[in-house]
Amino acid sequence: MKTAISIPDAIFEDAERLARRLKRSRSDLYSRAVAEYVARHALDQVTAAMDEALAAVDEPVDPFATNAARRILRRTAW
User: Fold this and answer.
1) Do residues 48 and 54 make contact, with C-beta atoms less than 8 angstroms apart?
2) Cα-based distances in Å from 78 to 66, 70, 71
3) Per-residue three-class SS string for the chain
4) In contact, 9 and 2? CB cutoff 8 Å
5) I need a labelling partner for 61 at 20 to 30 A (CA). Which of 5, 26, 31, 45 fits?
């Protein structure tokens, strides 16, 4: 699909240089960039759906499980 967008000159120039360096067309560069951006934000939708599902379960909080999970997370290298 063809579309017209407006972006700042500096970003356009950086994108042109990158496209040349990667030997890709401008269209390919922009398509890949938007696809990556959309994929990163899709995680927000997954998180929201998980939050809704957990809220619907309505299980009481288990203090033992909560404390155990916290201890494990503190020892885990991030």
Assistant:
1) no
2) 19, 14, 14
3) CCCCCCCCHHHHHHHHHHHHHHCCCHHHHHHHHHHHHHHHHHHHHHHHHHHHHHHHHCCCCCHHHHHHHHHHHHHCCC
4) no
5) 45
Structure tokens at 15: 């994108």
Closest Cα partner for 27 from 19, 18, 37, 38? Answer: 19
Q: What's residue 18's pLDDT? A: 97
Task: Name the amino acid, one letter, at 52.
Answer: E
pTM, rounded to two decimals: 0.56
